[in-house]
Amino acid sequence: MPNKFAAVVNRFSSSFEVNKNIMESLGTINLIKQIVNNRDPPKEVGIIRKRFDSKLSKLQENKTNNLISTNSSNPIDYDVESRLESGMEFYLPPTHELKHGELEPSDKEMELIEGSEPNIRRIIYDSKFKVTGLESIDADPLLTVDDSLIYPRDLQVFIHPPQCIDGFPGPIRDEQNVSGWWLLDGASILPVLALDLNEDDIVLDMCASPGGKSLLITQTGKFASLVCNDNKLSRLGQLRRALATYIPAGSEAASRIILKRKDVSSVESWDECGIYDKVLLDAPCTSDRLSANQDDNNIFATDKTTERLDLPQKQTKMLINALRSVRVGGSVVYSTCTLAPTQNELVVENAVVLAQQHYGIKFVERSLKRMEKLLKRTGLYRFSDQQQRGSLVLPYIVSNFGPMFICKLQRII
């Protein structure tokens, strides 16, 4: 059964309306429009969101009873313009610090950056940072609270109906040579929806190449600044070309995109701490669909055994850095395209425990069950009903998307 694709119409093309009409003429489903039409009434959504926020506020108050404030002003209330003027390297300090000696590591293992606010910027040498994969066994369970998303209406995603495997025509370029649409797996849209973006969000895409999810973020129009990171120079070049294909140079949107080259898997060198409102970590994984269909550079080849076995440890360190990157109240979305629990829910649970142990930061899971419910109503998506953590899109014959694991975490301390 062939992989089923979705088409994303490029809002930066001067032929946007024409391209949108082309997609509609194919008999496709406008995914976001379908979700919005199927959701609960707006008044009910507002009530639900207030109830969730109230519960989260109470949870934060309970968690901070043994903490003291480091500043009488609340840095979360800083306007986004002042944060942008200070540059993406500006460190926004957290509102609280741990009491002296609490969770304090040995001097041999750690050293503090001079003058920094506690924990989140602590340097731990990579050689000293151990991930066993068993961290969550004796730890307190990660708490889960419900979530209610606002879906970006500007994101134009078109999918053929269930049981239809028709393709899409090649994209049309406008007079600026900007491509009119592109194709991607229908499950790849979900991590971006889970971010629940706002217009004033400073967003980090940690493993951005080849650029599909970064492009989706730009299509929503809901970001103040987007930082696209990748470690390899070749992949960064691939990312730059992808962005240039769909976003006109010199456009207002292009001016809000920043490319960075940093090693996401190094807890020692990672310094993007407490800066971002939303962080997306689409982590490298065994890529089940690709591995099943391609022999070239297959992660299951015998010469890649060590690399494959080390993946969960690497993913855990990446997620810990993602958790360090987000401000209090901000969210991290972790995603993979594998069915393996060792790369999915176990990575999430172990990373949250280690982030609390070493950096004193705490998180709750924001359940995506409501998003699952709305997507199921479209008839296009199937989800695992066995998940204890996160959401898992399962490929099936009616709509062959995925696999895709998504888990959303929100920082409370």
From TrEMBL:
Keywords: Methyltransferase, Mitochondrion, RNA-binding, rRNA processing, S-adenosyl-L-methionine, Transferase, Transit peptide. The active site is at C337 (nucleophile). S-adenosyl-L-methionine binds at D230, D263, D282. InterPro entries: MeTrfase_RsmB-F_NOP2_cat (IPR049560), MeTrfase_RsmB-F_NOP2_dom (IPR001678), RCMT (IPR023267), SAM-dependent_MTases_sf (IPR029063). It catalyses: a cytidine in rRNA + S-adenosyl-L-methionine = a 5-methylcytidine in rRNA + S-adenosyl-L-homocysteine + H(+). Residues 104-412 form the SAM-dependent MTase RsmB/NOP-type domain. GO terms for biological process: rRNA methylation. Gene3D superfamilies: 6.20.240.40, Vaccinia Virus protein VP39. GO terms for molecular function: RNA binding; RNA methyltransferase activity. One of its GO terms (cellular component) is mitochondrial large ribosomal subunit. It is found in: Mitochondrion. Pfam families: Methyltr_RsmB-F. Belongs to the class I-like SAM-binding methyltransferase superfamily. RsmB/NOP family. PANTHER family: 5-METHYLCYTOSINE RRNA METHYLTRANSFERASE NSUN4, NCL1 YEAST -RELATED NOL1/NOP2/FMU SUN DOMAIN-CONTAINING. This is NOL1/NOP2/Sun domain family member 4. It comes from Meloidogyne incognita (Southern root-knot nematode worm).
